[in-house]
Design brief:
Blueprint: H1 2-18, H2 28-31, H3 55-63, H4 79-83, E1 88-91, H5 95-98, E2 108-118, E3 128-130, E4 140-143, E5 155-164, E6 173-174, H6 178-192, E7 197-199, H7 201-204, H8 211-226, E8 237-240, E9 243-246
Parallel strand pairs: 1-7
Antiparallel strand pairs: 1-9, 2-5, 2-6, 3-4, 4-5, 8-9
Length: 248
């Protein structure tokens, strides 16, 4: 039975998402999926599960209300300039890019979205439907209205394709295999020596973590930093694809 479940629900989808055989991937990727012998159809085992009301965009907009934000800025191109504006820098971009790939490039996966507006009130009856077979080119279809129980006459869907990453494109997922893990540890050693910069997020810590884990990690880091003497007030921030800068 377990082999049947693995082949139907895990193998094809996992290899499609990561672009390599399951035998080359660490086991913790599969362990992210809970196995239950009940009729509970929730994705996780957590007692409370959901998304913010009005979605994450509204959440971030409220968090940044009154905060000075600069977008489309390459912080690493003028690192000294931006570093001079803050006592601490929170960097959430690729850790290997921060150190100018001095040990070589880490590997990532990227995601491509194909979005379509359909002249119908409902397409699939659910926010997300995963396609676990290897033959279907996309990994899942997202029907956005179902996240917020929308009742619009039309619906918007996005097909999600997993693809290999190359420099110049936006990385989404770190590939936590043995080779990349060894390379990341070299960069982590350099990061630990940084006194001004804090590294966080999937790319900054090179971890394939779920959003709740990343948020919890960020809160712990913020608590530790804010508990230090002479900490700066969080009065303004500069955000860009490479990170967020906390102003003096």
């Amino acid at each position: 039975m377990f082999l049947h479940i693995y082949e139907k629900l895990v193998k094809g989808y996992t290899e499609k998402q990561w672009g390599r055989p399951c035998t080359e991937l660490p086991a913790f990727i599969i362990r992210r999926l809970p196995v239950r012998f009940t009729f509970d159809n929730h994705y996780f085992n957590a007692r409370f599960q959901g998304i913010p009301i009005e979605g994450h965009t509204a959440l971030v907009e409220k968090m940044l209300d009154g905060v000075k934000v600069k977008l489309n800025v390459d912080s690493l191109a003028e690192k000294d300039l931006w570093d001079g504006m803050a006592r601490k820098v929170v960097y959430t971009g690729p850790i290997d890019q921060y150190f100018d790939y001095c040990y070589g490039q880490l590997e990532y996966r990227m995601v491509r979205f194909e979005t379509e507006v359909l002249d119908m009130p409902n397409y699939q009856g659910n926010a997300v439907v995963n396609y676990t077979d290897r033959e279907t080119p996309w990994t899942r279809i997202i029907e956005h209205k179902h996240f917020v129980f929308g009742d619009q006459e039309k619906t918007v869907i996005s097909r999600e394709y997993s693809a290999g990453w190359k420099p110049g494109e936006e990385p989404y997922y770190p590939i936590n295999d043995e080779k990349n893990g060894e390379l990341y540890r070299k960069y982590r050693t350099l990061a630990d020596k940084e006194t001004k910069t804090l590294f966080g997020g999937r790319l900054g810590e090179y971890k394939y973590d779920d959003m709740d884990v990343v948020i919890a990690s960020a809160l712990r880091c913020a608590k530790a930093e804010l508990s230090k003497k002479h900490i700066f007030p969080l009065s303004s921030a500069f955000s860009n694809p490479a990170g967020i800068f906390l102003d003096k």
